[in-house]
Design goal:
The chain has 321 residues and is α/β, with parallel strands linked by helices. Helices cover 38% and strands 18% of the residues. The strands form two sheets. Strands 1, 2, 3, 4, 5, 8, 9, 10, 11 and 12 form a ten-stranded mixed sheet that branches. It has eleven helices and twelve strands. The protein has one domain: TIM Barrel (Alpha-Beta Barrel). Bound molecules: ligand PBG and zinc ion. The site of ligand PBG has 11 residues, from α6.
């Protein structure tokens, strides 16, 4: 008889043959920075997650810095929104200010800046809108402008999440022309139109005020198309590609894991909210659920995991080793 159980007899034996590990260095914590003063507002649908103003951000930044994870993915929430997302590429915009502050105070923290217009547009769409249509080519120059502005502020990685076609090459050219040849692009390549983003939209106040994002984000039924999106972004110059969300798309992560380029997975807000809700009800053990999920994302083939659980996970990983 083949006795698989021999290698499961005790924790020492199981550790010896364990195939997958989560390293803290692979984790990135998404952080919401809101314009204004003295703000630490809890996000109702994401227990444990807050929006901070810059003057109160040290609390969370210290925690990130002490945790041993690699860094943050920044989302800015401006005071003013308009049709052209002016705040997104203002050199004194909230995200730009946050990046400058973080890089000054915490030079070793990797700061990835999300590039998208939806937090800055009055209509909440990720691009320029005309007659209720989201215009691809008119959006590209603004994304490029935003990317350059974030790079100027000191961002270490530029992460476009808008899903306009051609944005990686538009951003790459703009970065290069402005002397940022060494700033990598982490592209949200296979980003699906997902219900699991809804808590994020509460947090970032970025829900579209009409329609949905299905004309630019991917249909959740499509696997082959995800691989083409990824291949295309690699051709356009992406340095890291991403699959998002993570848990309902482990097959995509798995298929994208051997394309010869680092792969990130975004364990999104709704995935976080589900665990939190069940845990708060006493229906699930949060620590075990989170570590199982992160292991699954890693096992599927993600090199980098962006997750709201990052700080908790970093603590739990210390405990269980
Ligand atoms: C902005 C953006 C979104 C997320 C990351 N960047 C929201 C969206 O596309 O509506 C979602 C992240 C999450 O749910 O945690 N385009
Ligand atoms: Zn967007």
């Amino acid at each position: 008889m083949r006795r698989f159980r021999r290698l499961r007899a005790n924790e020492q034996m199981r550790r010896l043959v364990r195939e997958t590990h989560i390293e803290k260095s692979r984790l990135i914590y998404p952080l919401f920075m809101e314009e204004g003063e003295n703000i630490k507002t809890p996000v109702d649908s994401m227990p444990g997650v807050y929006r901070y103003s810059l003057d109160r951000a040290d609390e969370i930044l210290k925690e990130v810095s002490d945790s041993g994870i690699s860094g943050v993915l920044l989302f800015g929430i401006p005071k003013q929104k308009d049709d052209f997302a002016t705040g997104a590429y203002a050199d004194n915009g909230i995200t730009q200010k946050a990046i400058r502050y973080i890089k000054q105070q915490y030079p070793d923290m990797l700061v990835t800046a999300d590039v998208c217009l939806c937090e800055y547009t009055s209509h909440g769409h990720c691009g320029i809108v005309e007659n209720h249509k989201i215009l691809n080519d008119r959006t590209l120059p603004l994304l490029a402008k935003m990317a350059v502005s974030l790079a100027k502020a000191g961002a270490d990685i530029i992460a476009p999440s808008d899903m306009m076609d051609g944005r990686v090459s538009a951003i790459r050219s703009a970065l290069d022309e402005n002397g940022f040849t060494d700033i990598p692009i982490m592209s949200y390549s296979a980003k699906f139109a997902s219900v699991y983003y809804s808590p994020f939209r509460d947090a970032a106040q970025s829900a579209p005020c009409f329609g949905d994002r299905k004309t630019y984000q991917m249909d959740s039924a499509n696997g082959r198309e995800a691989l083409r999106e990824i291949a295309d972004d690699i051709e356009e110059g992406a340095d890291i590609v991403m699959v998002k969300p993570a848990l309902a798309y482990l097959d995509i992560i798995s298929r994208a894991s051997d394309m010869g380029i680092p792969l990130a997975a975004y364990n999104v807000s709704g995935e976080y909210a589900m665990i939190k809700a069940a845990a708060q009800n006493g229906w699930i053990d949060e620590k075990k659920a989170v570590l199982e999920n992160l292991t699954a994302i890693r096992r599927a083939g993600a090199d980098i995991i962006i997750t709201y659980h990052a700080l908790d996970a970093a603590k739990w990983l210390e405990e269980s080793v």
